[in-house]
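Lecture 7, part 2: worked example. A protein chain together with flavin-adenine dinucleotide.
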Amino acid sequence: MGWARTEPRLRKRVSALLQPFRLGTLELPNRIVMAPHTTAFTSDAAANLPTDRHVAYYRERARGGVGLIITEGLHVHSTSFQAREIDASRDDAIPRLAEIVAAVHDEGARLIGQIMHTGGHGGNLQTGWLAPSAIPWSTGAQIPHELVPHEIAEIAHAFAATARRLELAGFDGVEVHVGHGHLLHQFLSPAANHRLDAYGGDAEGRARAVGETLKGVAEALSPDKVLGIRVSADDFLPGGLSLDDSLDIIDDLLGTAPIDYVHVSHSMYLEGYTLATQIADMSFPPGAFRQFPAAFKHRFPETAVIAICRLDDPGVAISMIEEGAADLIAMARQFITDPAFVAKLSSGELEGIRSCIHCNQGCVGRLEAGSPITCVVNPEVGYEAVFRSLSSPPRPERVLVVGGGPAGLQCAVAARARGHAVRLVDAGDALGGQVRHAAALSGREEFALLVDELADAAARSGVEVELGRRIEADEIDEEAWTAVAIATGSRTEPVEIPGAARVWTVVEALSALDHLGAHVLIWDREGSWAAAGLAEHLARAGKHVSIVSPAPAIAWGVSVYSKLALLPRLAELGVDFCTLESPVRLEDGAVVLAHTITGRERRLEGVSSIVAAGGLSAEDSLFRELAERGYPGEVYLLGDAFAPRSALEAVFDGKIAGASIGVPEKAATALPGRRGHRFSRLR
Ligand SMILES: Cc1cc2nc3c(=O)[nH]c(=O)nc-3n(C[C@H](O)[C@H](O)[C@H](O)COP(=O)(O)OP(=O)(O)OC[C@H]3O[C@@H](n4cnc5c(N)ncnc54)[C@H](O)[C@@H]3O)c2cc1C
Ligand SMILES: Cc1cc2nc3c(=O)[nH]c(=O)nc-3n(C[C@H](O)[C@H](O)[C@H](O)COP(=O)(O)O)c2cc1C
Ligand code: SF4
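Predicted complex, written out as structure tokens:
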């Protein structure tokens, strides 16, 4: 798995991805496309217009050798976008969009703008929510306003006007979003369109609004501009569109306008599991949806087909092109992770490629939280210009990194890249820290790539690594080390439950499956992957699992896009969900659970062992001792040792600390996180 460790047989076939392709009027140098992904780099304060962060972000990816970039969704109407998304419905968006185009063209890539209206799931307080039918997109969501025909015409016109704006800004083409459960897909799908007028009913009626929109967009564009559509091949929803339905609808739509390509995705914004398939996480196998673009290519051999989703696997991407199952392979998250991915493929430096681990934490997980994207693997996301303008440290330092988890590894690699001499020491017998436990969970194996690739990068760059040695404060010699990074992680505090002989930690439970008995109660105090992942792991090993959570939800810290697949998997494995409860004692062989709010108690019979997740504390004693001693060099405290959080923060801290070493404090504050308190620095 991953590109860096691509086996030699496959390496020889990478050339399949590097063949040129003609897409409409565009000559593309290779078969890889950067797929649309919302960055949320803008804000209300920036009037929802593109910002300098967008320009730097797209420039960096164009520079990285990809032939074609399709932008994040650009909203065509004021009723569509939410905070932080780009409003392309205004003429004053044109000059800012033109800056992105210029940056991408300067670097030799082509740029298509994706235009969209989110319909029933994407409105805002000021404008309300609009949809073909008054169906809330998920439980508890707003009931949208059912569009009347003149409003449908207004939105179709807004698509055309936005396409025109994009042409004026210099884009090479436009992709109309007809999938993912956005407005146009809501018209197509019987799950979302219950209308009885000319815009509903049979397939022809449901496709009417889309056909009119595409016709208008095509008329607004000059003939040399590329026109594509993004579609969902399958709604993955009872009562929604199947693959066969979608093929028939697209067949009709291809007759309404001169469409150069079909970009074949899947899923719908309508409750549940379907959404989890759209940005499929590591629990889905690579290429899980490759049959969809293949079916489109088979049905429409004359139209270019772009494939997407979990195709950032060498074997899958290469074979799809070789088999003619798609003309172009799009990837979204791989470009968040490694902007220079294609350049490295082209130059044969595959070992330098950083792979997306499909964790959904930093990218779409942050969007859910209303924040700009970042990445567990690539902390430079959104700060490209800052990192590019960083000046070199005045002199090489001698750096000791204590701890080889993600924080320590990332710090060592970043410090070494800036010319420092780095030694990394870990008490364990392998690098990776807690990530090794995370990756030991069923379906979470891909997490290991994060630390494997960092460990490889450390070895390649000449970081000296010593394993099996626990560092004590008094052996950190101030003559030897001008900078010390403490990345010693966290520990789980023991917890007692009256009457229970033992309460296991997640890590202990992972290596003691045979001792846990048949029915395991997991007390999840942090809503994390550690607890939910252990539940799946144990259930797959044949145990009966009850997750008990003091909160009203299970796995509340897990990205929605992952959780919507995780919870059905757990349910299928027979895991019990006990929310708003905590175990308080064992009594007559039963666990007594108390309700979080009412305190009411009930007995859970037959539990053989209890595992408590959460209750971590920072392993920061080395730092405190060095602080007390007045260590004269620079000392950093990072990752869980600063405060127990996740691999996302650990890598971020590691990167910023590695880049800060030797840099005077004033200059270092230009780095993200240095003005706040992401991590501590002495001196
Ligand atoms: C089961 C499980 C599942 C998880 N799942 C996720 C997930 O899905 N997503 C996520 O983001 N996070 C997850 N985490 C949390 C994540 O792994 C941690 O937040 C992250 O590893 C912290 O990184 P770190 O480098 O700060 O510390 P650690 O990974 O804890 O590494 C610290 C290292 O320091 C070494 N060390 C400690 N003291 C010394 C010393 N004195 N001398 C030398 N070496 C020392 C240790 O041996 C260890 O290797 C999970 C954790 C667990 C246990
Ligand atoms: C952070 C993020 C934002 C996304 N935003 C969009 C978007 O604006 N428009 C769109 O059509 N798809 C969007 N997607 C979906 C991707 O284009 C793609 O279909 C999905 O990530 C699966 O491809 P991948 O496995 O290569 O990441 C987004 C995905 C991510 C991760
Ligand atoms: S945060 Fe995770 S899923 Fe998202 S791009 Fe980075 S590695 Fe991939």
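The mean pLDDT is 95. Residues 361, 402-408, 425-428, 433-435, 437-438, 470-471, 487-490, 506-507, 529-530, 533, 619, 622, 639-641, 645-648, 650 surround flavin-adenine dinucleotide (ligand 1) (CB under 6 Å). Keep this in mind for problem set question 3.
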